[in-house]
Design goal:
Length: 263
């Protein structure tokens, strides 16, 4: 098997850790980008803040110098916030977009020139069903993932003539530290008659009983074995059914149902 080089952002824990571990077993040389090194000795750890453009540029330059080529980039680094949109601080929602969207864009745009010159390469963005099912009291998180989907699709069209493919892996509930690390804003819960707390609690209960990050990594590896990547891939049969409903239901009906469940 020819050696392949992969970069995984947010690789020190959770989904990124499972992805890095799975890619190692698939024969990839894995470069793990994170703010702190992870525990997998086989991964080549690179300390990196994906929201720092110069930091990302320098890290990618080091990887290219070491590896010579990039076959796969997995943009996984992300954070979550919750709360009513009107009571979310500008600092919090800016940070949400900086990490989830701009951080992914920054990394992708470092990989694109090399992949284009190679005339090969794949960029996998870790997205969410929240991109197509906008969640009340997680409006900025939903917006960040919707932006990722749109960016991936447009970038894929631009790069198609060069043999470079993009794809989004859309997740629902995954049991990781992401739930505990979510920055929650309860301000205004009295104004919203307790709906903020009730909605977030329901979401977090689902996450704590969700699929394992290893299942996500397994799906990603199966995806990467295909001759061509799909534009979007929803993980899990039940979640694929939700995606089907999104395609066939009128938008107003879909939003009504989301309001009944989470609003």
């Amino acid at each position: 098997m020819n050696e392949k080089n992969a970069i995984v952002t947010g690789a020190s824990k959770g989904i990124g850790f499972s992805l890095a571990k799975a890619l190692l077993t698939e024969g990839y040389t894995v470069y793990g980008l994170s703010r702190k090194p992870g525990s997998l000795e086989e991964v080549r750890w690179m300390t990196c803040d994906v929201t720092d453009k110069e930091d990302v540029k320098q890290v990618f330059a080091k990887i290219v110098k070491d590896a010579g080529r990039i076959d796969l980039l997995v943009c996984n680094a992300g954070i979550g916030i919750s709360g009513a949109a009107e009571f979310t601080s500008a600092e919090d929602y800016a940070r949400q977009m900086e990490v989830n969207f701009m951080g992914a864009v920054c990394c992708a745009l470092q990989a694109v020139p090399l992949m284009r010159e190679q005339r090969s390469g794949r960029i996998l963005f870790i997205s969410s069903l929240a991109a197509i099912f906008p969640l009340p009291f997680q409006s900025f998180y939903s917006a960040s993932k919707a932006a990722i989907n749109a960016f991936s699709d447009a970038l894929g069209l631009e790069l198609r003539p060069f043999g470079v493919e993009t794809s989004t892996l859309m997740l629902n509930d995954v049991k990781t530290e992401f739930t505990d690390n979510r920055r929650k804003t309860a301000t205004g819960d009295d104004v919203y008659e307790g709906r903020i707390g009730a909605s977030v609690e329901k979401m977090e209960q689902s996450e704590r009983s969700g699929m394992s990050p290893d299942q996500v990594a397994e799906t990603a590896c199966k995806l990467l074995k295909r001759r061509h990547l799909p534009s979007h891939k929803i993980v899990g049969m039940s979640n694929e059914f939700l995606g089907f409903l999104c395609r066939i239901l009128p938008t107003n009906l879909m939003l009504y149902l989301l309001g009944k469940i989470y609003g």
